[in-house]
Amino acid sequence: MSEPLISVIIPTYNYDNYIKQAIDSILAQTYPKEKIEIIVVDDGSTDNTYAVLQELINEKAIQYYYQENKGKANATYNAIQKCNGKYIFNLDADDYFLQDKITEYVKVFEENDEIVHVAAPAKILFEETQFIKTEILPKDILGKVIDGKWLLHRFYNDNMLFGGGTTYAARSSALKTIKIPSGVDMYIDEFLILTILPLGKSFFFDHPLSVWRIHKYNFSISAVVKENQIKNKSRLINSSSAVLDYLQKHHFEKSILKIYQIQDLTRRMLYKELQNDKKLSDIFNYSITVFFKIRPNWRLIKKYNLLNRLIPLSIIHFIKRNKPNEVDKEVLS
């Protein structure tokens, strides 16, 4: 097997307690170290990230770039532009690779020039309890080369998405053709899948090759206090709009665009519910737009729980009083 130069990008923000382990997992790969470049783009960290990485920077084991805080999408795009590798691997600063990951991914890429995206299920580590489980992916997409456009339809018609974040790798020549808007922000992982899959074929391993860490600093975990929920979900709404705008401007397939329009409208309704600001007029407008203008089929209505958004706030409050620990996670889908 040929062993081309590959790039690993690590966009980071205030993960000084995790990033060293992330980089160590790259340095411990079975793939030749001299064929790996590690590019860290620090998106304005205010913690000790630079101090933690200083020795690695001095040894030229990594390329480190600091920028003012502009969001993860901007940091990711800037990291991609600095890559010289034939394949680009994404690594979130609080996650890490298993030692054979790069070798196995490169082998798949090298065997088929049409493959633009490779991924695998992740091991999920719950830091507080040290409990580990493996992400479950649909069996019909594992261990074979799949048409990217078909896979995109499979994902969005079934309201699921896999192959992003730390499990994501792409062919550099394809990925570098994609201009990532900074506004994509918190939906960068979804955006990268949406835009790479139409460019070729994909391959998913049937076994984990990365570890995804769940901890109190994750967005999905730390956004517990209502004030922070509203602030962060406001960012999510803006990010969702930026993705939708990109899809419209780049003339994505109508079926994908239709589903994403539904997702965007639904996220906005969920945001109003969080703010206790969902009015009957909002429900009416949502109903008209979704059910009479976009007109999803019954399968999509069920998959995306669209009828739930027609429930008035008074009933939602009643449900939450009876299930006080239940957090609506659909805005993160």
Detailed description of the structure:
This protein has 333 residues and is of the alpha/beta class. It folds into two domains: 6-214, Spore Coat Polysaccharide Biosynthesis Protein SpsA, Chain A (Alpha-Beta Complex), CATH 3.90.550.10; 223-332, no CATH class. The protein is built from 13 helices and twelve strands. The strands form two sheets. An eight-stranded mixed sheet has the order 3-2-1-4-10-6-11-9, with helices on both faces. Strands 5-12-7-8 form a four-stranded mixed sheet. α10 packs antiparallel against α11. The longest helix has 24 residues, at 226-249. Mean pLDDT is 92; it is low at 220-227 and 327-333.
CATH topology of the largest domain: Spore Coat Polysaccharide Biosynthesis Protein SpsA, Chain A
Supply the number of structural domains: 2
Looking at the overall shape, the CATH architecture of the largest domain is Alpha-Beta Complex
Provide the residue-averaged pLDDT. 92
Structural class: alpha/beta
Number of helices: 13
Please give the radius of gyration in angstroms.
Answer: 20 Å
Protein name: Glycosyltransferase
Keywords: Transferase
Domain Glycosyltransferase 2-like: 7-136
Pfam families: Glycos_transf_2
Question: What descriptive keywords fit this protein?
Answer:
single chain, 333 residues, alpha/beta, Spore Coat Polysaccharide Biosynthesis Protein SpsA, Chain A, 8-stranded mixed β-sheet, 12 strands, 43% helix, disordered C terminus, Glycosyltransferase, Nucleotide-diphossugar_trans
